[in-house]
């Protein structure tokens, strides 16, 4: 091993124990450096980490957008209900009941004639709709109310 500077006259030469400690410290530092470089070159692990990060961001954004849409649908339904006259609200409520009854009837007919794999997918959709029931009903009621109002305005 060569030294960059020759030892000066007043500095004592390092002992063999000091040299061993320096070599061991250098080995440990080199080991850590190699580990860091190996981690940077592990493309599969880095890709997995990035995919996990992107999934988390997507889940957060999806939750945010869903919350906003629910709020807007509820707000729109309340606005329509507040602005609609009482007879229009009564008709919308009656129409909602009729639509619900017909939907149940059609659903039963469709269930009887649908193959099993499609039924499983439909059940999955039904569970999702039930989980988001309030915004769906609010949006349906708002749509029905708008349609009833438009129809009422057309009649002389």
TrEMBL record:
Location of region: Disordered: 1-26, 87-125
Which top-rank group of organisms is this from?
Bacteria
User: According to its UniProt record, what is one Pfam family this protein matches?
Assistant: DUF3618
Composition-biased stretches (Basic and acidic residues): 99-125
**What protein is this chain from?**
DUF3618 domain-containing protein
Organism (species): Streptomyces cyaneochromogenes
